[in-house]
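Repro:
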Amino acid sequence: MGQEICAEGFSRADFARFDVRLADETRALRDAFAAGELADDGPTIGLELEAWLIDHNFFPAPYNQSFLDRLDDPNVVAELSRFNIEVNAPVLGLAGRDLAAMHEHLSETMRRCAANAHEDVSTVVAIGTLPTLRESDLSIEAMTPMNRYAALNREIARLRGDGPVTIDIAAPEPGGERFTASYRDVMLEAATTSLQLHLQVPCERTAHYYNASVILSAPLIAISANAPYLFGRRLWQETRIPVFEQALGGVEGPPRVSMGHGYMDADPTAVFDENIDLYPVILPDC
C-alpha cells in the first residue's frame, strides 16, 4: 500500500490502456494455469503490520515523514495518514523456525521504531483502532502527501459522484451507542489498521487454502476482536469491520469490502475474472 505511483491523477486514456493490459494479463494467467505453468512453490508467508505514531498524550502524532526519514528502513513505509506507518517482514517458509524468525524480525523492527521516537512522537503502537482517535484527527490535511493517496481519494470521490458517504454504526446491544457522520474523502479508512498475512501456496492447492480461510474467518474474528471504540463511542466488538465496509461505500455496484461471493472452485483464475466484472478500476497505474 505504501508503494508510490507515478501520478496523482489519470486520464481516460490511462484507464483504457490499463483495462487492455489487465485483460491481457488475466488471459495470460488463465492460459498459464490451464497449461500447468504456474509455480507450485510454497507455502511461504510474509506480513505487514500497520501501526500508529502517538504523542506524549497518547493522541495520534502526524509526523510519519520525519519519523521515517530518521529511521531509514526500506521495510517501514508510510500509510494513508500521517500518523500511520507500515512495517513489512521478509517472506519466509512455514517450516522449522521460520515463524519464530519472522516474529524476531518484527519485534526487532518495532523496537527500533520505538527507539526512533523524538519530541513529536512518543512511541509506536500496534492496535486496531486507537481509542484516543478524534474525528478532527482525520482531516484531509492528515493525509500522507503521496501521489498514491491523493489519487485514491480523487478516484473514490469520482466513483461516488463527488458526493458524501454516510457512516452509520450502532452497537448491537439495546440502548447501545451509535456513530453517524458524512465524509467526502477516504480518511476514515485510516482508523482501521491491522496485521495482514500474505500466503503463497502451491497452485493446485489454491482453492483449498482460499476456502479454508473463508471458513475460518468467523471464529478468528470472534477470538481476536480488539477494536470496540471509535471516537470515544463503544460500538461493535470489532468496529473496524463496519468502518471499512462503509468508508468505501457510496459507489455503485457490489460492496468493495466483502468476503467474496462464494467458495472457490478448482480454477482460481475465476476470482480474477469476477473482480474485473464487478469492480471498476481505481488506480490505473502501469
